Amino acid sequence: MLPFSHLSCLFLVLCCLSSAVQSNLELSSSIYEVLKCHGLPMGLLPKGVKNFTLDNSGKFEVHLDQACNAKFENELHYETNVSGTLSYGQIGELAGISAQDLFLWFPVKEIRVDIPSTGLIYFDVGVVSKQFSLSSFETPRDCTAVQLTDQIQDGKHILEAVSKSLSGKLRYQLDQGEFVRTVL
Ligand SMILES: *[C@@H]1O[C@H](CO)[C@@H](O)[C@H](O)[C@H]1NC(C)=O
Ligand SMILES: *[C@@H]1O[C@H](CO)[C@@H](O)[C@H](O)[C@H]1NC(C)=O
């Protein structure tokens, strides 16, 4: 006998598979259940989801009431439109979520969990990936209205600079390697 939550996931999967009942998906389930059925915690999206779309390939678009911040171990910022591609245990091509770190905001590009679960969740911001405890994302949080477009750009520029200097360093080491080989 399957626990109820598994049954409702099964139901959802059947809904996803059958385009004939695709229009029922939004009526019969919430985006939070969609996350859960992909092995992801419901609290990844805050309260205040107005509507969402999800296609058969896993591409989704979520519309929130307003751009807002929610407090976790680090603060997260959500834009009005959040989009990405869902697969089991992972959201790729993410747009519309930023994480605060060292007083800067970094756009999150990918979120994933380990399968089987290790109790950790990873936020990939491009050059680095940060890990948080999965349990803090169990339930959707309240989200306070905030706009912060400029600050997000700051974090993005710093990441690009770090990324450039890292690849610069790598090139330097490679050059050194070449040099050593030439000398030998
Ligand atoms: C969802 O909400 C957004 C923002 O209000 C609106 O532009 C969009 O048309 C809505 N989409 C659906 C499918 O209802
Ligand atoms: C969010 O999505 C809606 C519906 O697709 C669109 O009309 C609106 O311009 C988008 N808003 C932003 C800030 O991108």
TrEMBL record:
Pfam families: DUF538
Alphabetic keyword roster: Signal
Signal peptide residue numbers: 1-23
Keyword Signal appears in the UniProt entry: yes
Keyword Signal part of the UniProt annotation: yes
InterPro entries the record matches: At5g01610-like, DUF538
Protein name (record): Uncharacterized protein
Organism this protein belongs to: Coffea canephora (Robusta coffee)
Lineage of the species this protein comes from: Eukaryota, Viridiplantae, Streptophyta, Embryophyta, Tracheophyta
